[in-house]
Each structure stands twice: as structure tokens, then as C-alpha cells.
Amino acid sequence: MTVAADVDAFLRHVAIERGLSANTVAAYRRDLGVYSGWLEAQGVSDVRLVTPATLSAFAVHLGTREESPLTASSLARMLSTVRGFHRFLLEEGRVDVDAARDLRPPKLPSRLPKAISVEQVSALLAATDGDDVAALRDKALLELMYATGARVSEAVGLNVDDVIDADVVRLTGKGSKQRIVPLGSYAREAVSAYLVRARPVLSAKGRATPALFLGMRGARLSRQNVWLIIRAAAERAQLDGEHLSPHTLRHSFATHLLAGGADVRVVQELLGHSSVATTQIYTLVTADTLRDVYTSSHPRAR
After folding, report:
1. Model's pTM, two decimal places?
2. Which of 83, 101, 193, 237 has the fewest CB atoms within 10 Å around its CB?
3. What count of Cα atoms within 13 Å lies in the side-chain half-sphere of residue 75?
4. Is 104 a catalytic residue?
5. Which of 151, 188, 199, 256 is the catalytic position?
6. Of these residues, 174, 179, 197, 236, which one is catalytic?
7. In the annotation, is 250 catalytic?
8. How many Å apart are CA 35 and CA 269, to the nearest integer?
9. Tens place of pLDDT for every residue, the chain, 302 residues?
């Protein structure tokens, strides 16, 4: 059995048995394409010939190659994929020893998520004010994303039936996991206005679709469309549109909740994080804010 055949078996496993998303499977395919190509160049035609020394050499190759250099996060992801692949080979009996068991990705520097202030969010949302179809849609979209902390893929994946009794929305996240998130009064009002006054107009321009947010031709709004909508709103609000993205609203949602006193585990559930450790990075943001306020305000802080 060739390395390529083993890779195909692994990809079928993660796609069918583990139910991972198409995007995740595609990322695995790219990573293992690099790995299998490197093994072939080293004359390794069978996974049973791979040793810990082989994998250490591969990690060194990734970290030092001059063509298409990898960032630390990309290197960590690729090595994680390779570890998962070798674990699968052991479980399937293709190898007797997991050669990648001790393979560890480099330690990544902790990066604080980028959020904008409440005032900046308000300015961004105000920049979508208007009575025309596009403005009503953009207002509903951005209000919903900030109200729920939805990922851009979750927002564009929403169907009309996912808005439940106008009070909560059902988001489908990574691994097809669903969660229910409340809608605030601003988002409820904006979504209601869009559904009554704008979506029927957009829907009439295309084929019937259950999608909540539609483009100007009546099809489901794309992720690229959302980027453009946010950039345009940022320009009108005189914010730095180059540094604003759909994820900025998600980061701001989490940061503002924690700054307002929300429990980190509640924010974890709202964001759809599988581990609270992922959510806790936002507490670093609020701690930095508190430190800045303390330093500038307390008479004996400086």
C-alpha cells in the first residue's frame, strides 16, 4: 500500500466517520500532500519505514525551507495533521508504532484577539442605516453578527427557519455543532425589518432558497460579500477598514461581554468553543483594559 493510498484512507475517515467539514478535510489534504511529497523525495514509499528521526527531519525541513516559508501557526497545524495521520495508521494496524507520538509543534506566541471599542461598533452599525434593500440587509447582518458572536460562515449559513420566534437564532458551527444564541433588541428589530421589507424583494430576483441573508441577485450571501459589506461600512464610519473583518465583530462580542461582567463559561457556550481555554484568551484583553484604566486613573499607579 502506498503513502498516497494511506492518505486517501485517512481523508475518507475524517470526512465520513468523524464528519469533519469540507474545509477542514481540504486543509488536511493540502498538509498531507506536502508531507507525502517530502517522503517521496526522501525515497520513503511506505509509512512503515517512517521513524521518529524521519519526522524530526520533516519538521526541520518545514521550519527552514526558503520556498513558501510557513508561519508558526501554519507549521503547528501541519505537524498536528501529520500526528493525526500517524495515530490513524496505528489504530488501523498499518504500523506497529506511532512514529509521530513525540512530534510536537513549536510553542506559539500568545496573540490577543483584535477587538474594537463599543463606540466603534456603534459607529460601524450606524453606517448601515438606510431604508433601501441593501441597507436593511446589511444592518440586519451586522447587528446579528455582533449580537451573537457568529463566525462569518455561521452567519451566511443561516436559514430563515434558524431565527426562532424572533428571540433566538440557531447557529451551526464547526463540526456541524449547533447552538442557540439570544438576539438582543437591536438585532431583533433589524432582522425583523429585513425579513418584512427587504428579503422578499431580494428573493424575487433568484431561485427559491431558505437562506436568511441574500445577495442582490437573490442567492445566498457569500463570505466574500460579508467582507465587502464590513469594509464599506467601516469606510463610511471613518474606521480603518483594512483592519476590520467579520471576525472583528466576533472578537468584540466576546470582549465586550467579559468586560461587562459575563462569566467566561457563558461566553464559551455563546461562542461555541469546545474548550474554555480558547475563550480565556479574551480575559487577557479585558485585563489589559483594566490595567490601562487603573494606570491612567489611580493617583499612586504611576
Report:
1. 0.62
2. 101
3. 20
4. no
5. 151
6. 174
7. yes
8. 36
9. 799 999 999 999 999 988 888 899 999 999 999 999 999 999 999 999 999 999 989 988 887 776 666 777 788 889 999 999 999 999 999 999 999 988 876 665 555 567 899 999 999 999 999 999 999 999 999 999 999 999 999 999 999 999 998 789 999 988 888 999 999 999 999 999 999 999 999 999 999 999 999 999 999 999 999 999 999 999 999 997 667 889 999 999 998 998 888 888 888 989 988 777 767 777 666 656 556 655 666 566 55
- Tell me whether residue 273 is one of the annotated catalytic residues: yes
How far is 1 from 47, CA to CA, in rounded Å? 9
Cα torsion through 181, 185, 145, 204, rounded to 10: 100
Strands (E) across 106-195 are located at 163-164, 168-172, 178-182
For residue 224, give every residue at least 6 positions away whose Cβ sits within 8 Å of its Cβ, in sequence order, or none: none
Residues in the chain, total = 302
Catalytic residue flag (residue 247):
yes
